[in-house]
Every structure is written in structure tokens, then in C-alpha cells.
Amino acid sequence: MAEIKTPSDLKYTKNDEWLKIEGDTATIGISDYAQDALNDIVYVEFPDVGATLNQGVTFGVVESVKAASDIFMPVGGTVTDVNKSLEDNPETINTDPYDKGWLIKIKVTDAAEASSLMDSADYIEFCKNR
User: How is 47-101 classified by DSSP, letter by letter?
Assistant: First the structure.
């Protein structure tokens, strides 16, 4: 397995989403491992801004030339922004999953929900054992 990038300031889910909490705002995307497994991403489906979603529910879809994958909420919250640039350039997720390839931003409902997520070291081990 190629070395996967897992920034240490993020939290990770078993469904390969990442979460970065700053104050009461969180940014969510899919991990380097996920984009590598999907291969060439060709389409992203987003929730509506203003939608309130609970932890664990599906909030969108990422489609590649190989497959379509649901994306799940790592924590609950209200969608405040979606990365519209991905509508025309979904491949940005492949080249920059943690910066320009973010998917949505939310106002976090309960930041304590993030305690159930993995840190980067745990996520690397999780990926190795698949």
C-alpha cells in the first residue's frame, strides 16, 4: 500500500471521512486513502446549505470512474457551505483531498461527538488492516 497522507490535526471515520473542527465550525472531506481507492473522481453530490444532519447519516455522494460512494457525517451539524468549485473540478479531491478538496462546512451541534473518531495514527492502522 502506498503511503497515505493523514494530517495529524484531523479526525477520521471508519467510512474514510475527515473532520477538522475550528471553534463551532467543522470542515469535512474524504481522506487520501478514500480518494486513492476511488481513483478518478468525476462527480460530487452535496446537501443543501441549511440542512441539519445527524452524526452518521449520508450527506452526499462521490462518484468515480470505478464506483459511487456515500459520504457520512462524522458529527452532527447544520451545513453552512459546500465546495461549489468541485462541481466543475471534482478531480481536485484526488489531488488535494485535505485543502482545496474539502466537501462541506458545518456548524457543529455537539463537538463531543468527535471523541468517537480516530486520530491519524489510529486511522493509519485501520487502513493497513483492511
Answer: PPTT-EE-TTSEEEEEEESS-EEEEE-SS-EEEEEE-THHHH-TTHHHH-TTTTT
What residues pair up with 43 in beta bridges, in sequence order? 63
**Structural domains of the chain, with CATH:** 11-111 (2.40.50.100)
Q: Could you tell me which residues are beta bridge partners of residue 108?
A: 77
Q: Name the nearest CA neighbour of 119 among 1, 21, 2.
A: 21
pTM assigned to the model? 0.97
* pLDDT tens-digit map of 48-94: 999 999 999 999 999 999 899 999 999 999 999 999 999 999 999 99
